[in-house]
Amino acid sequence: MSAREARRDAVRTRRARHALGGRTRPILALGTALGIALAAACGAGCRSGKEPVHLRFWAMGREGEVVTELVHDFERTHPGIEVEVQQIPWSAAHEKLLTSYVGRATPDVAQLGNTWVSEFVALHALEPLDARIATATEARPEHFFKGIWDTNVIANVVYGVPWYVDTRVLFYRRDLLARAGYREMPTTWAEWRRAMEAIRRTEGPGHFAILLPTNEWPQPMILGLQAGATMLKDDDTRAAFESPEFRRAFDFYLGLFRDGLAPPVSNNQIANLYQEFGRGRFAMLITGPWNLGEFARRLPPGMDAAWTTAPLPGPDGPGLSMAGGSSLVVFSGTRHADAAWQLVEFLSRTEQQVRFYHLSGDLPARTEAWRDSALVADPKMRAFGAQLERTAPWPKVPEWEEISIRLQDQVERAVRGTATADSALATLDRDVDRMLEKRRWLHARGLDALRPAAGTTGVRVAPPARVAAAGVRASGGPGRSAAGGGR
Amino acid sequence: MSRGSAERQDGAAWAFLAPALALILVFFVLPVIAGLVLSFTDFDIYAIGDPRVVRAIGAQNYTQVLGDGEFWNALRNTLVYVVLGVPLAIAASLGAALLVQAPLARARGLFRVVFFTPYVTTLVAVAIVWRYLYHPRYGLLDWILSSLHLPTIDWLGDPHWAMPSIVLLAVWKNFGYAMLIFVAGLQNVPQELYEAAALDGAGGWQRFRHITLPALQPALVFVTVVTLLANFQLFAEPYVMTQGGPLRSTVTLVMLMYEQGFRWWRMGRAASIAFLLFALMLGATLLQLRLQRERAS
């Protein structure tokens, strides 16, 4: 019996005694004695049968609110496990998780933005899951979108199971595209660009074909992914923004501003995104699932048929998008890894994924869940379903968020013309190389922090030998805010 | 007094001081030493996971911080805040103190409380209200500007205006504290001096210049030093109002330190920024004290 449970029992007994009054004391005493005798006879072995396992589950923001409903069902179907859901605001989640790790107070199981996985693996805070997945029925790689599953794989070891996904698609004004002579959104960069030029011609000055806020890094990054850029190289120990692949994407991106197809403005300079989109100030933007609801609510009435969504075009045919979202992870300090895994399995079931979508609006990570009528019926949702078949993670390194901010700075400089594309990318590579110095050192010493430390608890899986760089190429999801379904 | 009793007295003094000294040692001296040691290592996220990977890297943190544009940007923003904020804060608090102490003033107690209220109000609550005041569409300030047919300002969204907006908020928030010190100083000025000066035909400005200001000199020194030190450590206001944006125009040194330490978990780097800031503040304070001493002599 843990100290906490013992304390709780003591309180319970005291309360009971109080309620029953003095007369029943002998009976109670007898009962207590019996209980002690039983416990002694029983020992550690049958405790699990009697005492419910108390599972601590941390979930963020809105997800933390709605998941309690699913958890009730879990507790009903899994007697012997009680789950305490702790809801953490997204803005504080990262810090709270890290401090809980430092203070050895991590939960048993938690929701984790999938860009954070590599960081917590570097801390040796997560339980490797391969052995469990090998015998699992629900949480298996073939049930999930591949790009999303990949975000949880660090150096060939799986540390998380996707819970919901977040990606970016093209939201566009169908009427403006039609006026420019296009019935459908093109699927290649060249055609896409021609369509944008046509829109600029038909709409005239003051109107733009696409909005790419200069203070958002996912757009240039997604174009990079599409062109085959890896951003980092040499086992993620060096920057590779000057690679021909990224350069190609960057030139395409900068060209849109140079030729007046995209306005060089940041998000803060757009007074009201929905109003401007409604007025046709720009005909397209690249954004995420949360905006489906926002657009439906905030656009002027009657606009519903005028806009729709499409998967992103790519260099030569449908392109990749980012693999964002949240994963479910088991913390390595847990004493209830089995129960924690049962919860992960439960939340990975198709019907629970569908229910979770209806409760939260978060897109299911499990492919079968996308056969649900609500997802199939909505034509604007279909683009997301199609896009999820083509997603790829960002580099899975703890430094990623810092790198992305540097990228954003340099992109903004290049767009505003205070730096040339060459110098922006060279500066970026230099800065990022400096950030990754520690990784190079760890790598050279064979002290790879990405490997699970010897002596972590739970199922121990020998990390498979590092495969060729292409296979290792890990990771990534949205920025922290994106993971939060933010704006 | 015999030597023995002097020693006994010394012992007693140490015994009485011991609790306070122990606290200072544990909660101040040791952390500062630890921080200094930390600033010569590359303690980071990998080191939290596995302490064996900490390296002693000499002064590299310092050279890299000084070689990084981020630091100079933060320093510039901090200096802008100090240069704008310190004189403004002192002027505001001195002005308020003179007003509430003016012979004609009514309801002094009430005004003192009202002026002091912002200082004791939680910043987060204040920030919410000020974000509304600064709002480009619904804000009071821009409403006033537009009704005067002046161009409106995107207070927190424009990189040029964001820091001045923070200065305004911070001055309003903090002037009450220095005002109380000035009020106390003003109450110590003998009334006879004013009467004598008035008899000699000194006007209001002359009385202020030759009686009030010299009498307030100690308070002024104290307030200037304290305000200067506080302004160098600006963090909470931009953190809640702008998160350092737009275009990093409100990132201060302390915020940079916070980012390095608690966002990117580069503890060594953050510690080195802390010591650079310490050196800067020490220098500024010494310079300021010397200037005031020269002016006094």
Write a structural description.
The complex is a heterodimer of chains A (487) and B (297). Chain A has 2 domains: 53-166 and 323-383, Periplasmic binding protein-like II (D-Maltodextrin-Binding Protein, domain 2); 169-320 and 400-435, D-Maltodextrin-Binding Protein, domain 2, CATH 3.40.190.10. Helices cover 48% and strands 14% of the residues of chain A. Chain A contains 23 helices and 16 strands. Chain A has helices at residues 3-20, 25-42, 47-50, 61-77, 90-102, 117-122, 130-134, 146-150, 174-179, 189-203, 218-226, 244-258, 273-279, 290-298, 337-348, 350-360, 373-377, 379-388, 400-416, 421-435, 437-444, 469-472, 480-483, and strands spanning 53-60, 81-88, 109-113, 153-154, 157-158, 161-166, 169-173, 208-211, 232-233, 238-239, 282-287, 307-310, 321-322, 324-330, 363-364, 391-392. In chain A, the strands form 5 sheets. In chain A, strands 2-1-3-14-6-15 form a 6-stranded mixed beta sheet. In chain A, a hairpin with a 2-residue loop joins β4 and β5. In chain A, 46% of the residues are buried. With 297 residues, chain B is mainly alpha-helical. Chain B is built from 13 helices and no strands. In chain B, α4 (69-101) packs antiparallel against α5, α4 packs antiparallel against α10 and α8 (159-187) packs across α10. The chains are: A alpha/beta (487), B mainly alpha (297). The A-B interface holds A 95, 98, 101-102, 119, 122-125, 215, 266, 268-269, 271, 398-399, 401-402, 409, 412, 434, 438, 441-442, 447, 449, 453 and B 42, 44-46, 48-50, 52-53, 55, 64, 136-137, 154, 157, 245-248, 262-265.
Supply database-style keywords.
heterodimer, A: 487 residues, alpha/beta, D-Maltodextrin-Binding Protein, domain 2, 2 domains, 6-stranded mixed beta sheet, 4-stranded mixed beta sheet, 23 helices, 16 strands, 48% helix, disordered C terminus, B: 297 residues, mainly alpha
Helical content of chain B (DSSP H or I, runs of 4+): over 70%
Kindly provide the radius of gyration of chain B, computed on alpha-carbon positions and rounded to a whole number of angstroms. Answer: 24 Å
Which architecture of the largest domain in chain A does the CATH hierarchy give at level 2?
A: 3-Layer(aba) Sandwich
Count of spatially separate domains of chain A: 2
Which fold name is given in CATH as the topology of the largest domain in chain A? Answer: D-Maltodextrin-Binding Protein, domain 2
